[in-house]
Please model this.
Amino acid sequence: MMSRSRSVLIGVVLLLCPLCAQAADLLPPADAIRRDRPRLLLTPTDLPAGQAGAPLAISLGRLKAPPDAQSAREYSTLLAQVQGLRKPAALALAWRLTGKAETAQKAVDLLKSWRMDGGKARDPFYVYFTLWDLALAYDWLHDFAGFDEQARSDLRRRALPLAETGVKSGNDHVFHNYVWMFNGGAMMWALATVGEDPAADKMYATLRDRFNRELYGAMRYLAGGNGDSGGYWWLYCHNSAVMVLLAAQSATGQDLVAAVKREHGDWLARQYDYLLLSILPDLRFIPWGDTVAGPNGGITHEMAEKIDALAWALRSSPGAYVSRWLASKRGPARYYGETAIFYFLYGRDLPAHASPPPLGMLAGDKNGGQAIFRSGWDEGSTVVGFRCTDFFGQHNHLDQGSFILYRNGLLALDAGRYQKVAGPPMATDAHNTLLIAGKGQRTQRYQSAATLDAFLSRLPKGLETGEVLFYKDAGPWAAITGQFAQAYDPQIVLSAVRQLLYVRPEEPGGVDRVVIVDRLAGPAGKSLGEVRWLLHVPAKPTVEGLTVTATNGKSYLRCRPVGPAAPRVLIEEGLRTPAGRNWAMIDTSRVVYACDAGERLTLVHVLEMGDGQPPAKGADARFAASGEAVLVILNGKAYRFETARISALMAE
Model:
């Protein structure tokens, strides 16, 4: 079975590479870059609208348009914010908005006094944010009298070594946030200075080839999923990808957003959909992979600019909806520091029509990914996540087949907080998945695919850890099936298929129900040994027979097995875990359903979520075998679980 799935995957890989090669280069050559200024994200005059309906860049006239009465107060607050920063790009934008020469001169003085901090030159955050700041300021101040050619030449000379460090350090692993940040910062500087410096021309050619051949190819390969990790880490990759794309679009006047949709697998819109759906009602991200505490674990102050930029570029009604929702929650505070720049660029020019994002998506494809299902977009909405994909880098966890449940806070969670790579939260026993024969999933250390081809050639040699066999969102219910035996030592399990069914409430505020069916097969002639079905919950749950009930203070989670196995229930201490806004941490417990298995094992668990205290009796849930299929009947409705599909039938 596994050899067949791997051969299918290799076939998909071989088909994918020619497709990537045949796609036209996304970033144009240097001779397509305009010489008038400004050209990065801003243009002197209006450019035509792109296919999505947005202009290809924000013109100076559009930028300077006065605020309407409704937004005047927020406009003034954020203008004062950018004027008060000691950041060249922020001050350059403030000059463009107000015309005050003294503001421009402050920015120029900062550029003249800037010197590279050699001790930070290999820090990707320093490289990206410094070069991003310098590049925008260089471009936006280009025609200010106090920033003459001598000043510009001197800055190019001082900034070049940092940009070259980015180029040298950015040829490591196409799915790692550090690589995207090194290349993204260097490319922003190249876009700002190309045509004025032979070194910048050479750098642009090198980086253009790297983005076109490798980095944007990696984005396309992911089919909307995330690479190195979820939330915080991966969105630095995505941010670099977007900023370079929008800067190149404005610099060339070419509709690169449309080109992504037309010729490059529409990865920009798919990644954006994933970003929107991965936001929990408490403003944190779904916690996949290395999860950080504090504001970087969510969207409270460093994500509004990304949401707004793509809502503008794609003319996305769901993006406009989330942008306005975040504004209602955070007001001007949603823009942290210099990110307020993007309010003036994009936040004032979002689509007029706003509609909620869809209630479900598969971020990825049959090669693997993350499924996200929601009950709605109000404060009390439930979010269900399921992960089954390959190993892309060291911020990934050994968590294939794991699920996450949220209702008024986390109820089934990934345990732990990121403090170092390969720390305790990375282990399988910190996730809602399976331990088989006392073992978790195989430890991975690979992180050196400088090219997409290098990753694809290495993939069948241990990096393939999960694939999606089935996905469907039918409205009242949604389901996904994943095969993740690849993630374990092949000596202990041949097949591990997990199927998750989410039954949405029939009315707002009603009970959510999740059914998880696991079917395991050991290698020929070998038993599976002890199998541990793991569930991580807030605080300490109560146990009554085989039913476990947990609460986050507002909503409850009740879990019980209904399948043929006879498990034992254990409650173990879990890792402290970020939850809610800011730096809040909670204690957690690990619920273990343990059972001894033969060569094959079928497990069925029913989980219910509701508000307040759980009713005395849960849903009427029954299990029945039907040949190779499993039938689960919930309150009179039958759901048929086959390996290839899940279907709903009315019970007779």
Q: What stands out?
A: Confidence is low (pLDDT under 50) at residues 1-21. The two ends are 34 Å apart (CA to CA).
